[in-house]
Amino acid sequence: MFTLDSDLVGLQQHIGEFTPIFRQAFKGYVAGNWEESADNIERCLELWDTDGPTKAMQYYMKFYR
Questions:
Q1: How far apart are CA 16 and CA 61, in angstroms?
Q2: How far is the C-alpha of 9 from the C-alpha of 35, rounded, in Å?
Q3: DSSP labels, 1-65
Q4: For residues 2 and 8, is the Cβ–Cβ distance under 8 A?
Q5: How far is CA 52 from CA 3, 4, 15, 17, 19, in A?
Q6: Of the candidates 44, 5, 6, the residue with the CA atom closest to the CA atom of residue 58
Q7: Are 57 and 29 in contact (CB under 8 A)?
Q8: What is the pTM assigned to this prediction?
Q9: For the segment 5-39, what is each residue's pLDDT rounded down to a tens digit?
Q10: How far apart are CA 44 and CA 41, in angstroms?
Q11: End-to-end alpha-carbon separation of the chain, Å?
Q12: Burial of 59 (0-12, 13-18, 19+ CB in 10 A)
């Protein structure tokens, strides 16, 4: 089902590449290394421009920078 359903395949399209970059972005965000985190956030949004958690981190960092 996960390989045949086009909706599910579309949802999983960038997960393999996205997840490690998001983890690095989140680690930098939590550690206060926002400059490194911002670079990774940009890379995440290039892969998945509608990801809510990534956009929320980006908004928060821009607001409180």
A1: 25
A2: 33
A3: -TTT-HHHHHHTTTHHHHHHHHHHHHHHHHHT-HHHHHHHHHHHHHH-TT-HHHHHHHHHHHHH-
A4: yes
A5: 25, 26, 14, 17, 14
A6: 44
A7: yes
A8: 0.77
A9: 777 767 776 678 899 999 999 999 999 999 999 99
A10: 5
A11: 44
A12: exposed
Q: What are phi and psi of 10, to 5 degrees?
A: -65, -40
Which structure tokens are listed for 14?
Answer: 């960038």
Q: Would you say how long the chain is, in residues? A: 65
| Amino acid making up residue 20 | P
Label residues 6-21 b or e (16+ Cβ within 10 Å = b). eeeeeeeeeeeebeeb
